[in-house]
Amino acid sequence: MKALVMSQPGQVSLQELPTPQPEKGEVLVRVHASGICVNDVRDYKGECNFSYPRIGGHEFAGEIVALGNGVSPEQFPIGSRVVTYVIDNCNTCYHCKNGYTNVCPAFAHTTCYQNPDGISGFLGFSQYVIAKTEDVYFCGQDTPYEKLAFTEPLACVINSIAQCDISYGDDVLVIGGGTMGMLHVMLAKMRGARVILSEPMASRREKALELGAHIVIDPTAVDAVQEVMKLTGGLGARAVFDTTAVPALATQAIECTAVCGTVVMFSSLHPNKPVEVDLGKIHSTQKKITGAQNGSVKTFWQAVQMITKGLFDPTPLTEAIYDYHDFEEAMACAMRPDTFKVILNITD
Questions:
Q1: Domain containing 34 — which CATH number?
Q2: pTM of the full predicted structure?
Q3: Alpha helix (H) ranges present in 126-177?
Q4: For 147-191, what is the HEC assignment?
Q5: pLDDT tens digit string along 186-227?
Q6: Whole domain around residue 76: which residue ranges?
Q7: Fewer beta carbons under 10 A from the terminal one: N or C of the chain?
Q8: Distance between CA atoms of 344 and 348, rounded to whole angstroms?
Q9: How many domains does the chain have?
Q10: Do residues 286 and 177 share a domain?
């Protein structure tokens, strides 16, 4: 098979590798579309502590083309259009047994990140990947692979939205208008909220209004905290989602949150510097500060249903689709600060 192998940051080449063979309890998936995540961009820039060689890509969709020993062809028909759960959790620890597979501590120690004996990575930038049968999600046969490639990011955002009890008529603030921020805008509107987006880039503010945001703020032109308070009658937003990697904006997110409201730190921080928080104020206002890591088994299922059933269309967030032979051009597009989701078409 062919795969995009990163020998070191900034150096990716299309290489011929042995096609993996599914073993007991596994299926072989032929990848057709794979999104470039911001983490793939950081990896390409050398901002991640992963081992090399490496094959990135965790936002992929494909079809089942082979079955391992004992896998039922009736239950897993050849040709089925699928996505797979990409969190390689242990299924045995406290977190997994209690429904928190997305934060399984064993995941960080898997070959997805470090593999001293071979290739690390999620492997979605290759023609074939192996998937455990338990990780397979069946999709509509007529749903384009390019749409299904949004399953993983959508699952992450559904998990984020689930951290808040958003009610009809609530004010929701989304900080950051990248792909993940826009997904928050779209889903929060579906929950019946009035959605406010804070984003310095004019083109993204315009895009947010097209996607359903009710109000947009330019934080370089106004004080974002004061503007949110003004818009909400001094109350603040019931739910705030910080989708940026900027540590300083975490404090702003907390200040914009209403009494008894919830602020979700959706993005990892880069650099991950400590943020000073007025815990006395948190005590007196009962504000909740939480995080949202990955998608869960349940939110992956929900994301598949929403895309497959036509309840959610991610197409407006597709910046461009490139043949994976044109990876350098695709990555250059993904690295630009003004773009949304770039998808690789994994061809023969």
A1: 3.90.180.10
A2: 0.96
A3: 145-148, 151-161
A4: HHCCHHHHHHHHHHHCCCCCCCCCEEEEECCCHHHHHHHHHHHHC
A5: 999 999 999 999 999 999 999 999 999 999 999 999 999 999
A6: 2-155+295-345
A7: C
A8: 13
A9: 2
A10: yes
